[in-house]
Amino acid sequence: MSDSARAIRERHLLGGGPKRILALDGGGVRGLIALAFLERIETLLQERSGRRDFCLADHFDLVGGTSTGSLIAAALSLGYSTRRLIELYLTLSGRGFRRRPWYEGFWAPKFDDRALRQVIVENFGEKTLGSEELRCGLGIVAKRLDTGSVWLFHNHPRGPFFAPENPGAYVRNSELLLADLLRASTAAPTYFAPELLEIAPGVRGLFVDGGVSPHNNPALLLLMLATLKGYGFRWPLGGERLMLVSVGTGATAPKPKPEWARRRPAIMLAIASLRSVMQDGDHLGQTLLQWMSDSPTPWVIDSEVGTLAEDMIGGQPLLHYLRYDAPLTRNWLAQHLDLTLAQAQIDAIGAMDRPENSAQLLDIGRRAAERQVRAGHFPPGFDLDATAI
After folding, report:
1. How many CB atoms lie within 10 A of CB 383?
2. Residue ranges of the alpha helices (H) in the chain?
3. Is the pLDDT confidence value at 387 over 60?
């Protein structure tokens, strides 16, 4: 790592001034929708910076994600451009979602996790969470199933488990391979097998997709990471001090009818219930973040509280918050993107595991990004100081 690159990362993690966080949802192949939003954000910020070599890792101090969002976050943190990432993702989704030769329904994972691991290793190699090639802060969300706890792996040098001098009975997080962490974060139940990670000498934890928690949308969790003292970042709150940009992968809102429920086996009802709980977590996080901020990109929470435009905790914004997404519902697509699709088409493109939808997902994302993302959403006070890099 060059001295200038090291200075960039130290400025991101340890320097003063306003801080910028980028949070990326899970969603499988629908990550292409998030990449379309990131493509637009990168273009606007690059034009403002005047730098041809601009990348999002130079602008954002912390980039984190869940599941497919963790893959994108890790690549961005290494300095990937969105153009390169889109090309990579088109390849990754096609190879990563490779069905087993003999799919056994609910008795075995749907896809071959060896294919996914191979693609991840090819792109991240032997890099660790402590790699000096990471240009900014990185957060990876996974769920440890054998303890029922959410783990947020990050690379802040002051984190208590990152690189302590006397690690004692556990493995330094700085020494964990990115490939292993990303495989854990993407181990969606019924899709891929869980991942075992050595967390202490002779002790392995059983990890699954971070989306099997309240943090498939990791925005609120990353805000806590950046501001709660225990994690080590200790960044200050304030509307002019902290910006959080949250990017979705095309929210879906399946609403099973009572007749459907009566005809389905218990395992399918359990999966539908789990998905509903994940949506509840996303809904709660969105509500809290809009409650804390005076956001220029508010979403309607529900018919009672609206966008929370007249509500704010403490009377002053705790952060500058932006949320971009493209809900995959017939009404939203027709109203906001002028796309008229049958419900069967909506159901198909909403699937997380169909690479054949890649072109359509990217098109939906670009249409939504063109309409939603505005340069004015990013206050000049959060611009990079060119002399700092």
Report:
1. 14
2. 3-14, 31-49, 56-59, 68-77, 82-96, 113-124, 178-185, 219-227, 258-262, 266-292, 330-337, 343-349, 358-372
3. no
